[in-house]
User: Fold this.
Amino acid sequence: MDSSMFIKSIKIDDMGRIVVSVQDQLATFLKEDNTKQMLKEAARKALGDDYVRLEVSPTTFRVTVKEGSSEKAKELIEKEIATQIEMALSFMSQFGNQED
Assistant:
């Protein structure tokens, strides 16, 4: 599954944070408090003790992790995003099939 329809990039910045840039059409979604809380809980769950903080802006979210764990955290975040996208698409597909 190609996540590029939702995600522009996932990079590690010069401060060791994982920066996820989302496609512009998701900007309104990132503004919602429910979305911010969902992202925070997903990051905490996926990263465990390495999780420090989540910051959300209009088209990005940044995850701060413990020093030295950025590469591992980036891989975990990439996997988690791919899994969540797959689940959402599967749900939408099943929902769409029920209406036919």
Summary: The mean pLDDT is 90.
